[in-house]
Design goal:
This protein is an alpha+beta fold. The chain folds into 3 domains: 133 residues, no CATH class; 129 residues; 68 residues, no CATH class. Helices cover 38% and strands 27% of the residues. The strands form 4 sheets. The chain has a 6-stranded antiparallel sheet with strand order 3-4-5-1-6-7. The chain has a two-stranded parallel sheet with strand order 2-8.
Amino acid sequence: MSGTINEHEFVVVLRGHSAATFRQGTHIEVDQLQSSVGPVRAVYATRWLSRSDGVVLPGDLWIEVTGIGPSLEESLVPFANAGFAVLPVIALCTNAAVRDPEIELGFESTSGLRERDYFQSYVPPEPETIHIRRHINVEVTLAAIRALGKHPEAERLRRGANQYQIALDSWRLGIESLALAHLWMAAEAITKARIRIECTRRGIGDESSLASALGVGLDQLDPTVRKNLLLQGDEECYAKAKRASDGFEHGFLNYREINERAKDVRHRMAKYVRTAILEMMDLDRKTFEALISPPFDKPLGYWRIAKYFRGKLIGETDQLAAPGNAYPFMRWHPKITGTSVTPEGKLNIQMSESFTAELAPGIQFQPGTIEAWRPD
């Protein structure tokens, strides 16, 4: 986009954490996204950061939004909101957590000016902690973005994808109930869309006729469609998910019971909801099969690799901590020594680990094992 004397062009740049990662040199570009101040173009990519010689690591998800606006101040939030619109689809397609980014930069890019407005917000630099990530399949993700853009039920499907994105951001041990609550809200968001699509497929004119065809009263149409069509007739999953969601929302179950129900059905619920949204998007068969196949068939939260160090404290005294410390402690010094990318795009990381003992006089540490685990 280029500006004229009466048009002001602006660029807004956003950055945030994401388990969905673009390979080096790849990106997605989406034209004609609608903002409240006019159409914009957005480019989505991953920042690859050179940490030291031989160490290149993926950083945050980066979004550059460009368009015409009335002023920089009036364009920052509308441009950012337009850029957010594609993130639920990226999360849905990769089945990986994509957190909402923050506005980091904004500036006027109109050509021919001597003076341009500029804005910058402090966004913390990417942590050097290694997180589990999944590569984005650009081809199938673009196909899904385009299919959704022209779908008659786009609004409802976007609502469902947005709730699914939030569920993935809560895909961590201990908060299964929160993930399940958003999965249930995703199912509720797409129910009416599924009803209208089912009416069209059957050649039925209205919801009352569909309810009759399914053998239920009109007041039971929504739950019947959710259980039998969205959740593929899985009565146990439906009952446990509904009970946990209602108990979470209305506060009539204790948190432990809600979490136990959520643990039982969280993975099944995610598979049913995601598959239902993808099926309703009218994707071509190749795209659909790619999106429901490994590695995209399993949800991935934004997790750091868990590392554990075990050993024994050796000494005759009961005083274990170093003077001034509350507890015996091993100061951990992880270092990334090298990275490489395989022909298949897999990132290999070489690391070294060293420790400084902070222990009471007379106490020694006998090393045991170092473990690295992928959370689930």
